[in-house]
Amino acid sequence: GAGVSQTPSNKVTEKGKYVELRCDPISGHTALYWYRQSLGQGPEFLIYFQGTGAADDSGLPNDRFFAVRPEGSVSTLKIQRTERGDSAVYLCASSPPNSGVAGELFFGEGSRLTVL
Amino acid sequence: GNSVTQMEGPVTLSEEAFLTINCTYTATGYPSLFWYVQYPGEGLQLLLKATKADDKGSNKGFEATYRKETTSFHLEKGSVQVSDSAVYFCALSSYSGAGSYQLTFGKGTKLSVIP
After folding, report:
1. Res B11 pLDDT > 70
2. Which of residues 29-68 of A touch B (CB under 8 A)?
3. CA torsion angle A45 A91 B23 B60 (round to 10)
4. Peptide bond before B10: cis, by omega within 30 degrees of 0?
5. Is A89 helix (H, G, I), strand (E, B) or coil?
């Protein structure tokens, strides 16, 4: 069975450019998360979707970051006017319905973003 | 807010050595505790978990016990193998108050096991 798929695996861009990162979760998983992992750090929460709606976007660092999940499956993380400090690995994770506080998250391999 | 502190690496052990990776946490309420592992070239995957005080999570020879009195969840393995070389992340899950159960991760500990 397919796991969580993220594309691109690597993205190099210039400061000020727009970037889109895509996540295709495991089929049937209703919950979808985006995390960001900077070098030498653990993953940090960005945003959570339950179905199509962003139920919790409290981790987005500023209004340059936006994410959508229009049909309740694939999600796209969008970063406008990229800055060098946005360089990190962006992780997507999904989980089955009703997972709750003890539910396992299934992670993709991440998209490594480098802003020059 | 919630936080997780784990011992810094890297940790280098010989095959069959005993492993301990310390993890302590700060959280409100009653979090669930996890160890995730990231093998080279792969995504994070769940290694084990515990959902309440005194629970012991175990998998692949690894164990960790949820100690509420010391707010700890140390990872142990009696005899490591070369294939255990990976980065290990301690994490806690709690309700965010904004509609989601969020994982809060430690910084990770890189383990290298040499033959």
Report:
1. yes
2. 31, 33, 35, 40-45, 48, 50, 55-56, 58-59
3. 140
4. yes
5. strand
